[in-house]
Fold this sequence. Notes:
elongated, 4 helices, alpha+beta
Amino acid sequence: xxxxxxxxxxxxxxxxxxxxxxxxxxxxxxxxxxxxxxxxxxxxxxxxxxxxxxxxxxxxxxxxxxxxxxxxxxxxxxxxxxxxxxxxxxxxxxxxxxxxxxxxxxxxxxxxxxxxxxxxxxxxxxxxxxxxxxxxxxxxxxxxxxxxxxxxxxxxxxxxxxxxxxxxxxxxxxxxxxxxxxxxxxxxxxxxxxxxxxxxxxxxxxxxxxxxxxx
Length: 215
């Protein structure tokens, strides 16, 4: 019962984390305009994402433009694109693996094998969380370095956007949920050892028991 509860809790956290990774991947708010110095009131706000850049006017109008070339992007954006997509795909694969080995399904009969399949799904989710954590930290480090760099013009400085915070929350959920799935173990009743019974004693034609039964 405890193992089943850990599976349900871990799978729920991992599914929510995978959905947040997809949301973070699609949002354009990875980098946002930094309001510094005298730029308290501005006419527009710039958002930079993995797939597009958006300009939000003070009137509420928003215009977005998809990145024309992948090679023209910075290295952190290119890595973020690849790793977030891989993380999303691994989230879907991990979901199928965990469902196949879950105690509430009959895809696999042996309890010991089912537990190991769930553990493998937990490892997949942990790797998925690490894959999305790397570009988030890389991007945040570049944003902070440029923000405090006096050689970077104030108009080009950016701040950490909402997508990065969503991604960090997704990574935490994936790591915690994957760890819970790795803690799943087979029940004590299914230890993998079979019970052997002694053969039934057979009587001889004379009515006596065979002497071999007493050896």
